[in-house]
Amino acid sequence: xxxxxFITCISDIVFSEVGKDSVELLERLGCEVxxxxxxxxxxxxxxxxxxxxxxxxxxxxxxRAFKDSEYVVGPSGSCVGMLxxxxxxxxxxxxxxxxxxxxxxxxxxxxxxxxxxLGVTDVGSTFKGKVTYHPSCHMTRVLGVKEAPQTLLExxxxxxxxxxxxxxxxxxxxxxxxxxxxxxxxxxxxEKSQHVSETGAEYLVGGDMGCLMNIGGRxxxxxxxxxxxxxxxxxxxxxxxxxxxxYQNRRYSL
Length: 254
Description:
By secondary structure, this protein is an alpha/beta fold. The protein is 47% helix and 14% strand. The chain is built from 13 helices and 8 strands. It has helices at 9-13, 16-28, 44-48, 52-65, 77-89, 97-105, 110-117, 137-142, 148-154, 177-180, 182-199, 209-221, 231-235, and strands at 2-5, 32-34, 72-74, 107-109, 126-134, 157-162, 203-206, 227-230. The strands form 2 sheets. A 4-stranded parallel sheet has the order 2-1-3-4, with helices on both faces. It is globular and about 55 Å long. The two termini are 30 Å apart.
């Protein structure tokens, strides 16, 4: 199966390890992965700030970049959720509506792709530690991906999974929301940090790097010793070598 990686801006610029883990994970599951170099920002920051026409320029470039892709897979529910909004944004545009629909229909967040398209619930990973999962707003509410990440985590050998209290609450990031409404955002992430602490987890896992960066930053300022990792790191961690090999987690922090 041929897959085109949608790297997303934040992964490309700040957290390249997430892209690496995504490729390795997909290849391990039998996918042939390519990387269209013409891809750019999905347009979400500009669009959500009201700059619709400016955002459309980036969106059109994304449509062109992935025109020939069989599947488009990205490590961000938020960014992939934006691709799924393209048909609405270009509705009635005789030149771009059809292409926007085509891109939306073949675009998937990586855990969604693994579970719903590949039909895999156990990727053969091994990760020892107490883990809780933050379901980001855009992943669950915009894209509708709720079960796939938790299903994959629960099948990881050696993991101790703990449910995050009030998990549906926003972490306060919301892209430009955290900038425009900084005081409110700080109180929201403060509550999220408290809920993470209540689990006693060693690792906070999520599928959107913006949220993880926000929560992780708050917890570091509070002096909390919780490792923040993108879900692809957990799913791409597995035993190496022969029988009896002693596995140790690869420490990784956003």
